[in-house]
Design goal:
This protein has about 180 residues and is of the alpha/beta class. It has a single domain (about 5-170), classed as HAD superfamily/HAD-like (Rossmann fold, 3-Layer(aba) Sandwich), CATH 3.40.50. Helix content is about 35%, strand content about 20%. The chain has helices at about 20-25, 35-45, 65-80, 110-115, 130-140, 165-170; strands spanning about 5-10, 45-55, 85-90, 125-130, 145, 160. A 6-stranded parallel sheet has the order 3-2-1-4-5-6, with helices on both faces. α2 (about 35-45) runs parallel beside α6. It starts with a strand and ends with a helix. The structure holds magnesium ion.
Amino acid sequence: MKPNLLFLDRDGVLILDRDYGELGDPFKIKFLEGVFEGLKILKEKRFHFFVFTNQSGIQRGYYGEKNVIKIHERIDQFLYEKGIKIFEYYFCPHLPDEGCSCRKPNLGLYRKWIKEFPFQYDKKFMIGDKDSDVEFGKKLGFKTIFIEGRYERNSNPDFIAKNFKQAVDFICSFF
Ligand SMILES: [Mg+2]
């Protein structure tokens, strides 16, 4: 049986999205409601988890790549306690207008991922809180879920969720 695949945006999906000045501090991360429970449910459904995150705060000078990596290590520590594992994190450090290929909705990070994880998956989903997440997932042919938060939505996801739990409920409706 093939596993299933979930790509996750980080800020506003797993942890609280903060202003750039506060986003680089690993000790200030705050998991959003329902994340631990939801990932546990999806783990039971044989999902593999990967994070794809735009971190232009690096290029903007608010924090460094080291901070981003530390934050991911800290997320891992909390998730480890719950028996959950993010298989890998991918981040883009560039500014929106730099013309890089790795900033979502561009597929540069995906191309990196597929080299590292060239496996067969069954059902595939992307959860994000921005249009760029939805567009990224749509380009890949994934089912897309938009979690309402601090950003306006102009994209057309497969599902609009008010929180992580609703996103997980939508995914579970496919099983
Ligand atoms: Mg986000």
